[in-house]
Give the backbone structure.
Amino acid sequence: MSASPSRASELETLSVEAAGLRVTESAWQRVRKNWSVRIGGAALALLLLIAVSAPWLGTVDPTLFDAASRDLVPGQRGEITTLDGEIIKHKFWFGSDSYGRDIYSRVMYGARVSLTVAVLAALLSLAFGIVCGLSAGYLRWLDGILMRFMDGLMAIPAILIAIALVAMWRGSLPTVIIAIAIPEIPRVTRLVRSLVLSIREEPYVEAAVALGTPTWKIMFGHILPNTIAPLVVQGTYICAAAILVEAILSFLGVGLPPDIPTWGNIMAEGRPQFNQYPHNIFIPGVFLAITVLAVNILGDGLRDTLDPKMAKRV
Amino acid sequence: MSALADAKVSGSGPVLEVRGLTIALPLGSDRAEAVSGASFSVKRKEILCLVGESGSGKSVIAQAVMGLLPNTLPVTGGEIVLEGENVAHAGRERLRELRATRMSMIFQEPMTALNPVMTCGDQIDEVLREHTQLTPEHRRDRILAIVREVALPEPERIIASYPHQLSGGQRQRIMIAMALVLEPALLIADEPTTALDVTTQAQILALVQDLQQRHGMGVLFITHDFGVVAEVAHRVAVLRLGKLVELGEKNAVLKRPQHAYTKMLIGAVPSLQTHGRAAEGASEPVLRTVGLCKTYYDRGWFGRRREVHAAQDVSIEIRRGQTLGIVGESGSGKSTVARCIIRLIDPTAGEILLHGQDIAKMSAAELRPLRRKVQIVFQDPYRSLNPRRTVLEAIIEGPVNYGVRRDKAIERARQLMDLVRMDPASLNRYPHQFSGGQRQRICIARALAQEPELLIADEAVSALDVSVQAQVLDLLEDIRNRLNLAMLFITHDLRVAAQVCDYVAVMSQGRIVEHGPAAQVFGAPRHEYTRALFEAAPGRDFAFGSA
């Protein structure tokens, strides 16, 4: 067709298509406006603050015990002996356990363990899952081998793998984190693989192939960035699961050693006296529940705002 | 609009009268109202075509009439009068009674509009059970009668089939049967043939016209395609950004449009006449395929093998400064050929000669230095650009892959933005900030950054509105001339092919059935399939785009 200048300009002035730039909300703006994200995020921020500033919240060393202050109920006053042998007066806000340790201090310090385990286990399983999922999804020859291995891993109950691994290595913070992360890897791998399988069919990936972009650059430059949103959501769910699994391992006595204050350990130690002193289990239980709930609410909010299917509906 | 003055006695008055209809858009949209003060009427025994580009509000009007608008789009003014009854604010119960009995609707996508786990007969039966007291035997008779009426073969078998067992055209016939089984006074057809191939489209259009005549219904036919308008309309209403800009008899609107927008739209519709440019064949071909084949094997667990011949024995050649068009319906194998040539998929047999060098069997490493000579622009502008990369990154990706220094590549990207008539200042923006037509220009710039010798346009203008399509076609033509490119243009649209192609190859079921200079193929088609394609092209009697 002949491109007469008058016709071209006429087309451009009359065309309905907006010639200007579109103003659309960025994903981050949508995330910040979401109430689930705000509430979950605020609760988590508060817990994080507690974990970080535990020494300045009127706590004592969580490993200190004093036979004179055993089995106190919440709010009772008592005494506790410091490591230097000094005896100080202390108010036991959450009572004390059967060794005379301050449950308030142990719960505050316990938040550190729970949050550390949650974040590191999630990051670790995401990192391995991303590498495995990208490889399985993009390099087809690896797919069969890798996914059958993952299927095998998924066939063993997560808690059993974790128990076996911790039993092999002796309980410490790194081993517990690894033991929790490994059973999560197949789930992340499956998610990443399915995302890659759909993204690799996108025309922009085909265009990159036609532009001569090397395979590794396509995998990490084009495909990976477009899997981030669902992975962030999956990450929060792994955090919630990791907190629970850590508590379960501690409760079963196969997690971190009993002298380290974790919510699971506190509950495990409170179990024999549950009938007389239910607060030993009740208080760390409430903190555990609030943390997991906050992480899940945050995850739901992120899913609603980041998931492309949800975004289209808005 | 004289239609407003018509008597509104039910029976002789218009079936549907829309007066000053205004529908609000949610806050923060690009305009305040989806539809602003639209007034029109649909008479008995009449097809009114509502034409507009995407975002014009034409589907919103259809949904408003059916009472299907989401809560976010409230009717804020005006009346919708169906056979004398204002239904603009009718309650849910009343609307439910009216749907299917007095008004019904058919949709664009017959696969998603039908329930995949119910047989077609049961789906028609549901309408009857809901709205009539007929006995099962009577209902079955009615179903068979209506299925026969929409000209489906073997009605007994059809009503026992599930939607996936039928073709797209047959599914659309089932939709029409469902819509008409209770003989409504008004049929709303929302782009009912847009998802169909051109030959199927012609059949469905003929069917709608036939049924409309026989039942004396009013039809509100929504479309973006002026060819379809020319084919079926009695009267035409043109919608632009929610406002009705022109309403009149078909011939008046198409031949003597009054409003500048209508003139522009009709002028932008490509003509079926070829441009008659002298096609000289002196230069060496840039690319030649010899007996190109692509076969897909469907292998079951126990060795049962099914072969699908996506492309068979395809031989084409493209020279510098020339455009070869491959025309065909969906599933004809035209995109398979393009994807083989650019080696996104590996051909099963045959040669692909790029300057005489066979690239069909080359390994990825051997192919790499040659890749940049052939570039492609895809159909869907919304998926062709990585949403997380700026336009600049997209355009310089190719050159940087081949060792061009970054600052040089950026300099070149600025020039290319100028070439595709876009502002170089917008290089640092992300794709979602651009419209479909702008994105398609960016994709063209990205392809040109590699300084290709052959540019493949795979349905590159099919997803665009007609006015934007005309702009992008102009641009492609301009670029081909300026850079002396060879172009392979793949399209299902005969009008577009007529406009841009020097040579045309017509594909059907994986084979090229006819090829030759465009003027020859379009002027005197030899193969019966080609002739059938031309016969089916909607609005072929109207001389569009000749202005």
User: Anything to note?
Assistant: Chain B touches chain A through 59 residues (CB under 8 Å).
